[in-house]
Design a protein that fits this description.
By secondary structure, the protein is mainly α. The chain has a domain at 1-99. Helices cover 74% and strands 0% of the residues. It has helices spanning 2-5, 10-26, 29-35, 38-51, 53-60, 71-77, 83-96, 102-124, 131-154, 160-167, 173-182, 186-197. Helix 7 packs across helix 8. Residues 1-6 have low confidence and may be disordered. CHCR repeats lie at residues 58-199. It comes from Aegilops tauschii subsp. strangulata. This is Nucleoporin Nup133/Nup155-like C-terminal domain-containing protein.
Length: 199
């Protein structure tokens, strides 16, 4: 009750985060899924996400809540820096809830694309990483690109031009081919495949 009444000043937000940390140490995830009210959730969302993004995502997508949170309010409330939560929440909306909103499909495709490009950049600047770390990075990039490629192929609701604008200068050549095919530009698809496969 005290938390619900708090205004979102920096000092009080710090207090909320400290209280959340204590709660997370003493309460199992099931407690939060069942008992976290909508008002209380909006007050401590940042605190939960700072400590455990997986738990924050579990709370967002919990089916134990009597009334589901508004997807618009959730997206608006999420910290744009916490990309992982955005991705997982949009994935849940689209794959588990059957959301057909083109805006969410485009947002999800863009987030996956940006993550794939960032992973590529980090891998190319790996510096003094050992073989095990390099192999782990390669597996992560492969998994991320596979998820992106499958989504780009499966969904007809995102804007391919928006996604193409983001990855145009990247190394994601297969993703570009998928997007051009979605746009009906088969000649460019053949050019990309010929260039990258040596055909």
């Amino acid at each position: 009750t005290v938390l619900i009444c708090l205004e979102r000043t920096p000092r009080k937000l710090r207090l909320i985060k400290n209280l959340v940390r204590k709660l997370l140490l003493s309460k199992p995830p099931r407690y939060f899924k069942q008992h976290l009210t909508r008002t209380l959730f909006w007050n401590i969302l940042d605190g939960v996400a700072d400590i455990d993004q997986d738990l924050a995502t579990a709370i967002l997508t919990s089916e134990m809540r009597e009334k589901q949170l508004s997807s618009e309010k959730v997206i608006a409330a999420l910290d744009s820096e916490k990309v992982g939560i955005h991705q997982r929440y949009l994935q849940w909306l689209i794959e588990d809830q059957g959301c057909e909103d083109p805006h969410y499909h485009t947002s999800y495709a863009l987030l996956l694309s940006k993550s794939a490009m960032e992973a590529f950049h980090m891998e190319s600047n790996s510096g003094e990483k050992n073989d095990k770390e390099i192999d782990s990075d390669i597996q992560f990039i492969y998994s991320l690109r596979e998820r992106l490629q499958l989504f780009l192929q499966a969904s007809d609701l995102y804007d391919p031009e928006d996604v193409l604008d983001v990855i145009a200068e990247s190394e994601l050549w297969l993703e570009k081919a998928i997007l051009y095919r979605k746009m009906g530009q088969e000649n460019i698809v053949l050019q990309i495949l010929a260039l990258e496969t040596g055909g």
